[in-house]
Specification:
- The protein is α+β, with helices and mostly antiparallel strands and about 210 residues long.
- The protein is built from 5 helices and 8 strands.
- The chain has an 8-stranded antiparallel beta barrel.
- A hairpin with a 2-residue loop joins β5 and β6.
- The chain is globular and about 55 Å long.
- The two termini are about 35 Å apart.
């Protein structure tokens, strides 16, 4: 198997739109009977069990804001994580779970603009994946080939790219998103100001 080439782009391109404009962190309302951590209400399903039963998820997210939104896009599983393409603003989210598999509580995610254009090479025929694995193509493939740390964080793809409608719930401290058919769930907290380009996450969670 040939050695992966050195990246031609070493820094992720900044996204053109924020994930969501959180603004100032709202003050939590007084606790209601049966509520958790002073929030007026728990997030709706399928996010309720994770928020109620995983203290770190609740500490990262704090209180839910609004109702879940359906987000159309594409999803692909890798050896050590996933990629999600959000159709509305052509953002690609790269979520690695390599550190979590090695015993860490959280892992990293990055967000990059999808710059793939029709007519560009969809893949690199010089890169031959090991048996049973595959090279990502088009927008996912461009990000994967041009950024060495993405390849190192994710490894090779283990599935085909698939269209999905993901459910997203916004919180004071970030958001949760679902994978194909509602699972797995990722708890994502940004580490920078808008436009958000990186952060930490918990997941994949059942």
């Amino acid at each position: 198997v040939p050695t992966l080439p050195l990246p031609t782009v070493v820094v992720l391109q900044q996204p053109t739109l924020p994930v969501v404009t959180f603004g100032p962190t709202p003050t939590s309302p007084p606790a209601l009977p049966g509520s958790v951590s002073g929030c007026a209400t728990a997030p709706p399903m399928p996010f309720t069990p994770i928020w109620q039963n995983i203290p770190q998820a609740q500490a990262l997210m704090r209180c839910p804001i609004g109702t879940p939104q359906e987000v159309r896009g594409a999803f692909q599983f890798f050896e050590h994580g996933v990629m999600f393409w959000r159709e509305s603003d052509r953002s690609i989210f790269v979520l690695s779970d390599l550190a979590i598999r090695q015993g860490q509580q959280t892992d990293s995610w990055w967000r990059v603009a999808d710059t793939f254009q029709e007519g560009e090479p969809e893949s690199d025929p010089g890169l031959v994946p090991p048996e049973g694995l595959r090279q990502p193509v088009r927008g996912f493939g461009k990000v994967w080939r041009n950024n060495a740390f993405v390849r190192e964080a994710l490894g090779w793809a283990v599935s085909e790219e698939m269209p999905i409608t993901s459910l997203w719930q916004t919180f004071e401290g970030g958001w949760m998103m679902t994978g194909p058919n509602g699972a797995p769930i990722y708890v994502m907290a940004p580490l920078d100001a808008p436009p958000y380009s990186s952060g930490i996450h918990l997941g994949p969670l059942p």
